[in-house]
What does this fold into?
Amino acid sequence: MTILAGVIQSALSPVLRRIRPLLPPEIGGLVVFLVGTSIAAIGCRFIIGVDAPVPVGRDYWLVGAITLATTVGLNVWGKGQARLYCAVIGMSVGYGAAVVTGLLPLEAFHLLSDLPYFAVPNLLHGGWAFSPAMVLPFTVAAIAITLKGIGDITACQRINDAAWVRADMGSISRGTLANGLANMFAGLLGTLGVTPSTASIGLQAATAVSSRVIGFAVGAILIVFAFLPSVTGSLILMPRPVMGASLLFSACFVLISGLQTITSRMLDARRTIVIGLAIAAGIAAEIIPGFASNIPSAVEPIVNSSIVLGTVTALLLNGLFRIGQRQRVMLALDPSAPDAVAEVNEFFDHAGRQWGARPDVLVRVAFGINQAVETIREHCDPQGPIEVEGRFDEFNLDVRISYRGAPLELPDRRPSERDIIETETGYRQLAGFLLRRNADRVRTSSKDGVSVLEFHFEH
It folds into this structure.
Protein backbone atom coordinates (compact mmCIF):
# COMPACT_ATOMS: atom_id res chain seq x y z
CA MET A 1 0.00 0.00 0.00
CA THR A 2 2.94 2.33 0.61
CA ILE A 3 4.17 1.53 -2.90
CA LEU A 4 0.70 2.42 -4.20
CA ALA A 5 0.86 5.80 -2.46
CA GLY A 6 4.25 6.41 -4.08
CA VAL A 7 2.86 5.51 -7.51
CA ILE A 8 -0.02 7.96 -7.02
CA GLN A 9 2.38 10.74 -6.01
CA SER A 10 4.59 10.06 -9.01
CA ALA A 11 1.55 10.15 -11.30
CA LEU A 12 0.43 13.48 -9.82
CA SER A 13 3.82 15.17 -10.31
CA PRO A 14 3.43 16.09 -14.02
CA VAL A 15 -0.16 17.27 -13.46
CA LEU A 16 0.91 19.94 -10.97
CA ARG A 17 2.10 22.23 -13.77
CA ARG A 18 -1.43 22.37 -15.18
CA ILE A 19 -3.00 23.51 -11.93
CA ARG A 20 -0.64 26.47 -11.66
CA PRO A 21 -3.50 29.02 -12.06
CA LEU A 22 -5.14 27.46 -9.01
CA LEU A 23 -2.00 28.02 -6.93
CA PRO A 24 -1.42 31.80 -6.91
CA PRO A 25 1.49 33.12 -4.79
CA GLU A 26 -0.68 34.15 -1.86
CA ILE A 27 -1.82 30.53 -1.48
CA GLY A 28 1.82 29.46 -1.67
CA GLY A 29 2.50 31.89 1.17
CA LEU A 30 -0.51 30.51 3.04
CA VAL A 31 0.84 26.97 2.79
CA VAL A 32 4.23 28.14 4.08
CA PHE A 33 2.44 29.86 6.97
CA LEU A 34 0.49 26.70 7.76
CA VAL A 35 3.74 24.73 7.73
CA GLY A 36 4.99 27.17 10.38
CA THR A 37 1.85 26.85 12.49
CA SER A 38 2.16 23.07 12.38
CA ILE A 39 5.73 23.24 13.67
CA ALA A 40 4.79 25.85 16.28
CA ALA A 41 1.83 23.82 17.53
CA ILE A 42 3.99 20.74 18.09
CA GLY A 43 6.67 22.85 19.74
CA CYS A 44 4.15 24.48 22.10
CA ARG A 45 2.71 21.11 23.11
CA PHE A 46 6.17 19.78 23.89
CA ILE A 47 7.48 22.83 25.73
CA ILE A 48 4.30 23.32 27.78
CA GLY A 49 4.03 19.64 28.57
CA VAL A 50 0.72 18.67 26.97
CA ASP A 51 0.32 14.86 27.27
CA ALA A 52 3.87 14.60 28.64
CA PRO A 53 4.81 11.10 29.89
CA VAL A 54 6.70 12.67 32.84
CA PRO A 55 5.50 15.06 35.57
CA VAL A 56 5.48 18.65 34.36
CA GLY A 57 6.79 21.28 36.74
CA ARG A 58 9.40 23.94 37.31
CA ASP A 59 12.33 21.84 36.10
CA TYR A 60 10.49 20.82 32.92
CA TRP A 61 9.79 24.42 31.94
CA LEU A 62 13.25 25.56 33.03
CA VAL A 63 14.90 23.10 30.63
CA GLY A 64 12.72 24.36 27.78
CA ALA A 65 13.46 28.00 28.61
CA ILE A 66 17.23 27.40 28.79
CA THR A 67 17.23 25.56 25.46
CA LEU A 68 15.19 28.26 23.71
CA ALA A 69 17.17 31.14 25.25
CA THR A 70 20.50 29.58 24.27
CA THR A 71 19.40 28.91 20.69
CA VAL A 72 17.86 32.35 20.21
CA GLY A 73 20.74 34.15 21.89
CA LEU A 74 23.35 32.52 19.66
CA ASN A 75 21.27 33.15 16.55
CA VAL A 76 20.74 36.84 17.37
CA TRP A 77 24.05 37.83 18.97
CA GLY A 78 26.34 34.97 17.98
CA LYS A 79 29.04 35.23 15.34
CA GLY A 80 30.42 32.78 12.81
CA GLN A 81 30.23 29.11 13.81
CA ALA A 82 28.30 29.87 17.00
CA ARG A 83 25.43 31.32 14.98
CA LEU A 84 25.65 28.59 12.36
CA TYR A 85 25.36 25.78 14.93
CA CYS A 86 22.99 27.58 17.28
CA ALA A 87 20.37 24.81 17.10
CA VAL A 88 22.84 22.01 17.84
CA ILE A 89 24.44 23.98 20.69
CA GLY A 90 21.03 24.83 22.10
CA MET A 91 19.96 21.17 22.11
CA SER A 92 23.27 20.13 23.72
CA VAL A 93 22.79 22.71 26.46
CA GLY A 94 19.22 21.46 26.86
CA TYR A 95 20.47 17.91 27.30
CA GLY A 96 22.87 19.12 29.99
CA ALA A 97 20.17 21.10 31.78
CA ALA A 98 17.87 18.06 31.70
CA VAL A 99 20.56 15.91 33.33
CA VAL A 100 21.34 18.55 36.00
CA THR A 101 17.68 19.06 36.93
CA GLY A 102 16.98 15.33 36.95
CA LEU A 103 14.50 15.56 34.10
CA LEU A 104 16.73 13.14 32.21
CA PRO A 105 18.32 10.91 34.88
CA LEU A 106 21.64 9.28 34.14
CA GLU A 107 19.97 5.91 34.59
CA ALA A 108 18.12 6.54 31.34
CA PHE A 109 21.38 6.21 29.45
CA HIS A 110 21.78 2.68 30.84
CA LEU A 111 19.04 1.68 28.41
CA LEU A 112 21.55 2.25 25.64
CA SER A 113 23.69 -0.57 26.99
CA ASP A 114 21.04 -3.03 25.82
CA LEU A 115 21.46 -1.79 22.25
CA PRO A 116 24.35 -3.06 20.13
CA TYR A 117 26.84 -0.47 19.02
CA PHE A 118 26.82 -1.85 15.47
CA ALA A 119 24.12 -3.87 13.73
CA VAL A 120 23.07 -4.50 10.15
CA PRO A 121 19.44 -3.38 9.54
CA ASN A 122 17.01 -6.28 9.25
CA LEU A 123 14.75 -6.07 6.20
CA LEU A 124 12.67 -9.15 7.08
CA HIS A 125 10.28 -7.47 9.52
CA GLY A 126 7.86 -6.19 6.86
CA GLY A 127 5.73 -7.98 4.32
CA TRP A 128 3.83 -7.05 1.19
CA ALA A 129 0.05 -6.92 1.32
CA PHE A 130 -2.65 -5.29 -0.77
CA SER A 131 -6.11 -4.38 0.50
CA PRO A 132 -8.78 -3.02 -1.90
CA ALA A 133 -10.55 -1.46 1.09
CA MET A 134 -7.47 0.66 1.81
CA VAL A 135 -7.03 2.02 -1.72
CA LEU A 136 -9.17 5.11 -1.07
CA PRO A 137 -7.53 6.03 2.27
CA PHE A 138 -4.05 5.62 0.80
CA THR A 139 -5.04 7.66 -2.26
CA VAL A 140 -6.28 10.49 -0.04
CA ALA A 141 -3.13 10.21 2.05
CA ALA A 142 -0.97 10.43 -1.09
CA ILE A 143 -2.83 13.58 -2.18
CA ALA A 144 -2.44 15.03 1.31
CA ILE A 145 1.30 14.32 1.31
CA THR A 146 1.56 15.92 -2.13
CA LEU A 147 -0.15 19.09 -0.89
CA LYS A 148 2.13 19.17 2.15
CA GLY A 149 5.10 18.73 -0.16
CA ILE A 150 3.94 21.71 -2.23
CA GLY A 151 4.02 23.81 0.93
CA ASP A 152 7.42 22.52 2.02
CA ILE A 153 9.04 23.01 -1.38
CA THR A 154 7.46 26.46 -1.71
CA ALA A 155 8.94 27.37 1.67
CA CYS A 156 12.37 26.23 0.45
CA GLN A 157 12.02 28.34 -2.68
CA ARG A 158 11.03 31.38 -0.61
CA ILE A 159 14.02 30.91 1.71
CA ASN A 160 16.54 30.47 -1.11
CA ASP A 161 15.38 33.32 -3.35
CA ALA A 162 15.19 36.84 -1.92
CA ALA A 163 13.42 37.96 -5.12
CA TRP A 164 10.82 35.17 -4.96
CA VAL A 165 7.47 36.16 -6.45
CA ARG A 166 5.72 32.87 -7.31
CA ALA A 167 6.08 29.13 -6.88
CA ASP A 168 8.31 27.35 -9.40
CA MET A 169 6.03 24.51 -10.45
CA GLY A 170 8.89 22.72 -12.21
CA SER A 171 10.75 22.41 -8.92
CA ILE A 172 7.58 21.36 -7.11
CA SER A 173 6.83 18.74 -9.78
CA ARG A 174 10.32 17.27 -9.53
CA GLY A 175 10.16 17.28 -5.73
CA THR A 176 6.82 15.48 -5.79
CA LEU A 177 8.22 12.86 -8.15
CA ALA A 178 11.25 12.38 -5.90
CA ASN A 179 8.98 11.93 -2.87
CA GLY A 180 6.84 9.43 -4.78
CA LEU A 181 9.87 7.40 -5.85
CA ALA A 182 11.18 7.48 -2.27
CA ASN A 183 7.87 6.10 -0.97
CA MET A 184 7.89 3.36 -3.60
CA PHE A 185 11.40 2.41 -2.45
CA ALA A 186 10.29 2.54 1.19
CA GLY A 187 7.43 0.19 0.40
CA LEU A 188 9.80 -2.24 -1.28
CA LEU A 189 11.95 -2.27 1.87
CA GLY A 190 8.95 -2.67 4.14
CA THR A 191 9.51 0.54 6.07
CA LEU A 192 7.55 3.73 6.72
CA GLY A 193 6.71 6.22 4.01
CA VAL A 194 8.56 9.54 3.96
CA THR A 195 7.72 13.23 3.54
CA PRO A 196 9.87 16.38 3.48
CA SER A 197 11.06 17.53 6.91
CA THR A 198 9.15 20.72 7.71
CA ALA A 199 11.24 21.47 10.81
CA SER A 200 14.45 21.25 8.78
CA ILE A 201 13.11 23.93 6.44
CA GLY A 202 12.70 26.23 9.43
CA LEU A 203 16.27 25.46 10.46
CA GLN A 204 17.47 26.49 7.00
CA ALA A 205 15.76 29.84 7.39
CA ALA A 206 17.13 30.32 10.91
CA THR A 207 20.76 29.56 10.05
CA ALA A 208 20.69 31.07 6.53
CA VAL A 209 22.43 27.90 5.33
CA SER A 210 20.72 26.02 2.52
CA SER A 211 22.63 23.79 0.10
CA ARG A 212 22.02 20.45 -1.57
CA VAL A 213 25.54 19.46 -0.47
CA ILE A 214 24.24 19.53 3.10
CA GLY A 215 21.41 17.26 2.01
CA PHE A 216 23.87 14.71 0.65
CA ALA A 217 25.91 14.91 3.85
CA VAL A 218 22.86 14.46 6.06
CA GLY A 219 21.75 11.52 3.93
CA ALA A 220 25.12 9.87 4.39
CA ILE A 221 24.98 10.49 8.15
CA LEU A 222 21.53 8.92 8.39
CA ILE A 223 22.72 5.86 6.45
CA VAL A 224 25.59 5.48 8.92
CA PHE A 225 23.18 5.92 11.86
CA ALA A 226 21.10 3.03 10.51
CA PHE A 227 24.00 0.76 11.43
CA LEU A 228 24.50 2.34 14.90
CA PRO A 229 21.45 1.57 17.10
CA SER A 230 23.06 3.03 20.24
CA VAL A 231 23.54 6.44 18.60
CA THR A 232 19.95 6.47 17.35
CA GLY A 233 18.78 5.47 20.82
CA SER A 234 20.51 8.48 22.39
CA LEU A 235 18.53 10.77 20.07
CA ILE A 236 15.28 9.10 21.10
CA LEU A 237 16.06 10.05 24.72
CA MET A 238 15.91 13.77 23.86
CA PRO A 239 13.65 15.47 26.46
CA ARG A 240 10.38 16.87 25.15
CA PRO A 241 11.05 20.48 26.30
CA VAL A 242 14.32 20.43 24.35
CA MET A 243 12.50 19.26 21.23
CA GLY A 244 9.76 21.82 21.80
CA ALA A 245 12.19 24.72 22.11
CA SER A 246 14.00 23.70 18.92
CA LEU A 247 10.73 23.43 17.00
CA LEU A 248 9.50 26.82 18.24
CA PHE A 249 12.76 28.39 17.12
CA SER A 250 12.40 26.92 13.62
CA ALA A 251 8.71 27.86 13.40
CA CYS A 252 9.43 31.58 13.84
CA PHE A 253 11.25 31.85 10.52
CA VAL A 254 8.77 29.73 8.57
CA LEU A 255 5.80 31.74 9.88
CA ILE A 256 7.35 35.07 8.92
CA SER A 257 8.36 33.77 5.51
CA GLY A 258 4.76 32.77 4.84
CA LEU A 259 3.38 36.11 6.02
CA GLN A 260 5.83 38.01 3.83
CA THR A 261 4.69 36.03 0.81
CA ILE A 262 1.00 36.58 1.56
CA THR A 263 1.40 40.33 2.11
CA SER A 264 3.54 40.73 -1.02
CA ARG A 265 0.29 40.58 -3.03
CA MET A 266 -2.63 42.97 -3.17
CA LEU A 267 -5.69 41.27 -1.67
CA ASP A 268 -9.30 42.07 -2.45
CA ALA A 269 -12.33 40.77 -0.54
CA ARG A 270 -12.31 37.40 -2.34
CA ARG A 271 -8.66 36.68 -1.66
CA THR A 272 -8.93 37.93 1.92
CA ILE A 273 -11.77 35.49 2.57
CA VAL A 274 -9.82 32.63 0.93
CA ILE A 275 -6.73 33.26 3.07
CA GLY A 276 -8.69 33.98 6.26
CA LEU A 277 -10.92 30.91 6.13
CA ALA A 278 -8.00 28.66 5.15
CA ILE A 279 -5.95 29.87 8.13
CA ALA A 280 -8.97 29.37 10.40
CA ALA A 281 -9.43 25.81 9.13
CA GLY A 282 -5.75 25.02 9.59
CA ILE A 283 -5.65 26.41 13.13
CA ALA A 284 -8.84 24.55 14.02
CA ALA A 285 -7.22 21.27 13.03
CA GLU A 286 -4.32 22.05 15.38
CA ILE A 287 -6.00 23.41 18.52
CA ILE A 288 -9.45 21.83 18.72
CA PRO A 289 -9.37 18.32 20.20
CA GLY A 290 -11.57 15.83 18.43
CA PHE A 291 -11.86 18.07 15.39
CA ALA A 292 -11.65 15.03 13.11
CA SER A 293 -13.90 12.73 15.13
CA ASN A 294 -16.97 11.08 13.61
CA ILE A 295 -15.81 11.49 10.03
CA PRO A 296 -15.22 8.81 7.37
CA SER A 297 -11.78 7.22 7.71
CA ALA A 298 -11.09 7.92 4.04
CA VAL A 299 -10.88 11.69 4.62
CA GLU A 300 -9.08 11.56 7.97
CA PRO A 301 -5.66 12.23 6.36
CA ILE A 302 -7.02 15.55 5.08
CA VAL A 303 -8.83 16.71 8.23
CA ASN A 304 -6.14 15.57 10.67
CA SER A 305 -3.43 17.74 9.10
CA SER A 306 -3.60 21.50 9.50
CA ILE A 307 -1.40 21.96 6.42
CA VAL A 308 -3.55 19.75 4.21
CA LEU A 309 -6.90 20.97 5.53
CA GLY A 310 -5.93 24.63 5.18
CA THR A 311 -4.51 24.06 1.69
CA VAL A 312 -7.56 22.13 0.50
CA THR A 313 -9.84 24.85 1.91
CA ALA A 314 -7.86 27.54 0.07
CA LEU A 315 -7.82 25.61 -3.22
CA LEU A 316 -11.57 24.97 -3.15
CA LEU A 317 -12.44 28.56 -2.24
CA ASN A 318 -9.99 29.97 -4.77
CA GLY A 319 -11.50 27.80 -7.50
CA LEU A 320 -15.02 28.89 -6.47
CA PHE A 321 -14.16 32.60 -6.33
CA ARG A 322 -12.52 32.51 -9.74
CA ILE A 323 -16.09 32.37 -11.10
CA GLY A 324 -16.92 35.85 -12.32
CA GLN A 325 -13.39 37.14 -11.80
CA ARG A 326 -12.29 39.29 -14.71
CA GLN A 327 -8.72 39.12 -15.98
CA ARG A 328 -9.44 41.95 -18.45
CA VAL A 329 -10.63 45.40 -17.35
CA MET A 330 -11.33 48.60 -19.26
CA LEU A 331 -11.47 52.30 -18.45
CA ALA A 332 -12.63 55.22 -20.62
CA LEU A 333 -11.00 58.55 -19.73
CA ASP A 334 -12.27 61.99 -20.65
CA PRO A 335 -9.20 63.94 -21.90
CA SER A 336 -10.55 67.13 -20.40
CA ALA A 337 -11.22 65.64 -16.95
CA PRO A 338 -9.02 67.28 -14.28
CA ASP A 339 -8.83 64.15 -12.07
CA ALA A 340 -7.56 61.67 -14.68
CA VAL A 341 -4.50 60.77 -12.57
CA ALA A 342 -6.62 59.84 -9.56
CA GLU A 343 -8.98 57.88 -11.80
CA VAL A 344 -6.11 55.86 -13.29
CA ASN A 345 -4.63 55.17 -9.85
CA GLU A 346 -7.96 54.00 -8.48
CA PHE A 347 -8.57 51.86 -11.57
CA PHE A 348 -5.30 49.94 -11.28
CA ASP A 349 -5.51 49.68 -7.50
CA HIS A 350 -8.93 47.99 -7.77
CA ALA A 351 -7.79 45.76 -10.64
CA GLY A 352 -4.56 44.85 -8.83
CA ARG A 353 -6.42 43.73 -5.73
CA GLN A 354 -8.77 41.62 -7.83
CA TRP A 355 -5.86 40.03 -9.66
CA GLY A 356 -3.65 39.62 -6.59
CA ALA A 357 -0.86 41.50 -8.34
CA ARG A 358 2.38 42.69 -6.78
CA PRO A 359 2.14 46.27 -5.45
CA ASP A 360 5.56 47.27 -6.83
CA VAL A 361 4.51 46.27 -10.36
CA LEU A 362 1.20 48.13 -10.05
CA VAL A 363 3.05 51.28 -8.98
CA ARG A 364 5.14 51.10 -12.17
CA VAL A 365 2.04 50.46 -14.26
CA ALA A 366 0.01 53.32 -12.78
CA PHE A 367 2.94 55.74 -13.10
CA GLY A 368 3.63 54.78 -16.72
CA ILE A 369 -0.01 54.93 -17.79
CA ASN A 370 -0.51 58.29 -16.08
CA GLN A 371 2.53 59.68 -17.90
CA ALA A 372 1.25 58.28 -21.20
CA VAL A 373 -2.23 59.75 -20.71
CA GLU A 374 -0.78 63.12 -19.72
CA THR A 375 1.48 63.18 -22.78
CA ILE A 376 -1.39 62.19 -25.09
CA ARG A 377 -3.61 64.92 -23.64
CA GLU A 378 -0.98 67.64 -24.07
CA HIS A 379 0.69 66.72 -27.36
CA CYS A 380 -1.52 64.35 -29.40
CA ASP A 381 -4.79 66.33 -29.47
CA PRO A 382 -7.06 63.31 -28.70
CA GLN A 383 -10.57 63.42 -30.10
CA GLY A 384 -12.99 61.57 -27.84
CA PRO A 385 -12.23 59.33 -24.87
CA ILE A 386 -8.87 57.69 -24.15
CA GLU A 387 -9.52 53.97 -23.63
CA VAL A 388 -7.31 51.99 -21.25
CA GLU A 389 -7.50 48.19 -21.27
CA GLY A 390 -5.59 45.97 -18.83
CA ARG A 391 -5.01 42.20 -19.10
CA PHE A 392 -3.37 39.99 -16.47
CA ASP A 393 -2.33 36.31 -16.40
CA GLU A 394 -0.03 36.15 -13.30
CA PHE A 395 3.15 36.23 -15.38
CA ASN A 396 2.31 39.19 -17.62
CA LEU A 397 0.46 42.46 -17.22
CA ASP A 398 -0.40 44.13 -20.52
CA VAL A 399 -1.98 47.56 -20.90
CA ARG A 400 -3.40 48.90 -24.17
CA ILE A 401 -4.18 52.61 -24.65
CA SER A 402 -6.20 53.62 -27.71
CA TYR A 403 -7.41 57.07 -28.81
CA ARG A 404 -8.20 59.11 -31.90
CA GLY A 405 -5.36 61.48 -32.49
CA ALA A 406 -1.73 61.84 -33.54
CA PRO A 407 0.47 58.85 -32.71
CA LEU A 408 2.96 59.16 -29.88
CA GLU A 409 6.59 58.62 -30.86
CA LEU A 410 8.65 56.17 -28.77
CA PRO A 411 12.29 56.76 -29.73
CA ASP A 412 15.01 54.32 -28.69
CA ARG A 413 17.39 57.16 -27.86
CA ARG A 414 16.94 60.21 -25.70
CA PRO A 415 16.46 63.37 -27.79
CA SER A 416 19.18 65.99 -27.44
CA GLU A 417 18.75 68.98 -25.17
CA ARG A 418 18.67 71.21 -28.24
CA ASP A 419 15.80 69.20 -29.75
CA ILE A 420 13.89 69.29 -26.48
CA ILE A 421 14.26 73.07 -26.15
CA GLU A 422 14.01 74.25 -29.75
CA THR A 423 11.65 71.84 -31.54
CA GLU A 424 7.94 71.32 -31.06
CA THR A 425 8.30 67.52 -31.05
CA GLY A 426 11.29 67.41 -28.67
CA TYR A 427 9.30 67.23 -25.43
CA ARG A 428 6.96 64.62 -26.92
CA GLN A 429 9.93 62.50 -27.99
CA LEU A 430 11.43 62.80 -24.49
CA ALA A 431 8.14 61.66 -22.95
CA GLY A 432 7.99 58.73 -25.37
CA PHE A 433 11.59 57.78 -24.54
CA LEU A 434 10.83 57.76 -20.79
CA LEU A 435 7.68 55.70 -21.36
CA ARG A 436 9.70 53.11 -23.26
CA ARG A 437 12.16 52.82 -20.36
CA ASN A 438 9.42 52.46 -17.73
CA ALA A 439 7.83 49.34 -19.27
CA ASP A 440 9.51 46.03 -20.10
CA ARG A 441 8.24 46.26 -23.66
CA VAL A 442 6.23 48.91 -25.50
CA ARG A 443 5.09 49.49 -29.05
CA THR A 444 2.89 51.94 -30.93
CA SER A 445 0.71 51.73 -34.01
CA SER A 446 -1.82 53.82 -35.88
CA LYS A 447 -4.61 52.89 -38.29
CA ASP A 448 -7.55 54.89 -39.68
CA GLY A 449 -6.86 57.76 -37.29
CA VAL A 450 -6.81 55.51 -34.19
CA SER A 451 -3.49 55.43 -32.35
CA VAL A 452 -2.60 52.56 -30.02
CA LEU A 453 0.03 52.25 -27.31
CA GLU A 454 0.74 48.76 -25.93
CA PHE A 455 2.72 48.31 -22.72
CA HIS A 456 4.02 44.99 -21.40
CA PHE A 457 5.11 44.54 -17.78
CA GLU A 458 6.65 41.33 -16.50
CA HIS A 459 5.03 40.18 -13.27
About this structure: The longest strand covers residues 383-392. The beta strands are 328-333, 383-392, 396-404, 441-447, 450-458. Residues 135-160 form the longest helix (26 residues). The two ends are 43 Å apart (CA to CA).
